[in-house]
# Entry
Amino acid sequence: MRFLDEYRDPGLARRLLADIRATATRPWTIMEVCGGQTHTIVRQGIDELLPAGMRMIHGPGCPVCVTPLETLDRALAIASRPGVIFTSFGDMLRVPGSSGDLLGLRARGADVRVVYTPLDAVRLAADNPDRQVVFFAVGFETTAPANAMAVLHARALGLGNFSMLVSHVLVPPAMTAILDSADNQVEAFLAAGHVCAVMGWTEYEPIAARYQVPIVVTGFEPLDLLEGILMAVRQLEEGRREVENQYVRAVRRSGNTAAQEALRRVFRVTGRTWRGIGPIQASGFVLAPEYAAYDAERRFGVDGLSSAENAECIAGAILRGTRLPTDCAAYGTSCTPRRPLGAPMVSTEGTCAAFHNAGRTR
# Structure
């Protein structure tokens, strides 16, 4: 298939691997910050084909996985209310909260529905004026513009029964938090191409300069990732520490300015708690004061809920890149995709799910 197979050409992959081996004179540690990239790397065995000692470590690139437990518990509390239609993308339904998941809540009679766009939730609110419709707004900068447009559309329609449970997080502050941590091992980053398609890469330039780390904006296919790794290794070997763009077919430095304007209108930057990492300043979005009427946490009074993580799950260390799923005693035993202890095992972008689906064993 054109535009797909050309980025999976085995001959070109072998050439890129040869170039990586010829360029690297010492082991390097590179982190990808995208769950989609993690799944490609693990499924294709890219991490196992790199030169001896070179490591790919898998960062907090899955927005489902970094959504804190208390937010999931707030979602469950709202979805269980009478008269509520709770809507979400499908990847959130099986993520465990403290007392179950949204899929189980639906099985017990709650009106939990999968939607394919936040505008589907707006349409549900318009069609059900006697019901409260809530959309679970989770994701990085990639999904935030569509959610902003849904709020603007709901306001234009005068809908008083639509709201959002917002749990948006931002990638650059998480990278900074990893680099500032005492156990940091990252020497270069592969940045997520879809995030940069929205935001551009100007936010990454101060990080590369301050921390002296190469950052390569990278796509999601095997050849994208191999070329991104090669570009990062070349920078490391040459002593350069800058932002480069491998994903030239989709990303430009300024990003999508129309999407950015929608974000500025609807959201404000706030501190967020990341599952496994903890609080990070200025690392998420919250609805702007003029759109506070669409804030489901306030509407349903669940903003005070707090929760404790499962002590058996080491999702935090996995999301920080300091441990692998196969280091976890629960991996593949008490924690499987059918019965997950934590979000990285159930999410379609989770590192534990990637390892399990690829047959990686302890």
Remarks:
- Residues 344 and 351 are 6 Å apart (CA to CA).
- The longest strand covers residues 278-287.
- The chain has a mean pLDDT of 94.
- Residues 222-238 form the longest helix (17 residues).
